Amino acid sequence: MSTADSAMTGTEVAASAHPLRALSAQDLRAHTAHALERARKRSGTLTDAVDDADLVTQHSKLMSPLVWDLAHIGSQEELWLVRDVGGRQPLRPDIDDLYDAFQHARADRPALPLLGPGEARAYVREVRAKAFDVLSQAPLEGGALTDTAFAFGMIAQHEQQHDETMLATHQLRKGDPVLHAPSPPPRRVGAVPAEIVVPGGSFLMGTSVEPWALDNERPAHPVFVDAFAIDTFPVTNGQFAAFADAGGYQQPRWWSEQGWAYRTEHDITAPRFWRREQDAWWRTRFGRYERVPEAEPVVHVSFHEARAYAAWARKRLPTEAEWEKAARYDPHTGRSLRYPWGDGEPTAEHANLGQRHLRPAEVGAYPRGVSPLGVHQLIGDVWEWTSSDFAGYPGFTAFPYREYSEVFFGPGHKVLRGGSFGTDAVAIRGTFRNWDYPVRRQIFAGFRCARDLTPAERG
Ligand code: AVJ
Ligand code: FE
């Protein structure tokens, strides 16, 4: 960007000030190895929690057997790190096709001649040993794949993304609890306004300097966003229950045509995993049956349900640009931050991430995660549906493969932002973009509302 543009539309973190770029080659290798090890520890937790029979079972037509995710994690690591970056011989060229997500739909994967649990575990171990060997020798600058260890960061994110998918499979599985974690912190902020006004004007969306950002987050580009109001917190279970109890699921006027057709066809009357008992809503959560906690963000709602709630509340969903401006824009400097709280990496004090807890935290639980404008819990807890279709930014170039993002661009997928309690820190940023079909509910998705300003508020 030219200096004149920067002055008008703000900048992002200086490339030289980026925490990863400031590291020595040795420290960057250690940081990268740690990210890969953290992902592998989590994959172990998710797959060791159940027996072998369970690992090869399909718990839902929407999901793969856990053993498929595990070997697919290894297969991608082999393709990118061992073969591509490392230039090494393939370990298992014979299984490439089985673990190519584009060759076989999730529903068909159990019928494939997959590696068994023991074979899959041995395979990912062998791949990892080779990948670490490649990491110890690869130059971490120069080529686009190796620059700042990009491909290694991409693979750590890929494993964490599948770990979140496996966590969603756990939520769908029947039976007693097998995953355990402490409760998240309670609300820790006092009275705050219900909505925050975001001033109109340009801000810098996306990134051109974030070393491990994926292709769809690039490049940074100025976007004009009109003044609007956004909810301080994600919509809670208590608020969403009010919509359901007021007959929101029975009244077509709150729904889009597509949403109403979907609601009717599947007879949807509440968020997935909820059940109405005599006088209260209950839910199943990783094998536990419990009262729906009012103060937590609602989770397991589709885009269509989110949109209907917003219409009922006389609001709307934010666009993706609005969400990102609320999260990153610092009105004091005009700069776009890496995270709502600043440019520093997420800690346990900033956000509910990384499966440290098996649920979203109450709204107000993360005072240190607040954005400069005063918006809370944009990162962590629940993915947030936006009203935007998934599309490439101006100047988008697919990298390193079209099948990560580009083949999903179009009106069929809606963008989700911010990550959930099941998203690892390596796989979320202020610029990170997730996407899914508007009917999906098994993901850890909720939402917050936005609205246009009234003429009086515009002044
Ligand atoms: C970005 C979460 C939509 O899981 O489908 C995993 C990530 N891409 N393997 C997905 C991904 C290839 C992707 N999402
Ligand atoms: Fe994948």
Commentary on this structure:
There is one protein chain. 31% of the residues lie in helices and 13% in strands. With 459 residues, it is of the alpha+beta class. It folds into two domains: 17-172, Four Helix Bundle (Hemerythrin (Met), subunit A), CATH 1.20.120.450; 183-459, paralog of FGE (formylglycine-generating enzyme) (Alpha-Beta Complex), CATH 3.90.1580.10. The protein has a four-stranded mixed beta sheet with strand order 12-11-10-13. Strands 1-4-14 form a three-stranded antiparallel beta sheet, with helices on one face. Strands 5-6-7 form a three-stranded antiparallel beta sheet, with no helix packed on it. The longest helix is centred in the N-terminal third of the chain and has 24 residues, at 25-48. The protein is globular and about 65 Å long. It starts with a helix and ends with a helix. The structure holds N,N,N-trimethyl-histidine and fe (iii) ion.
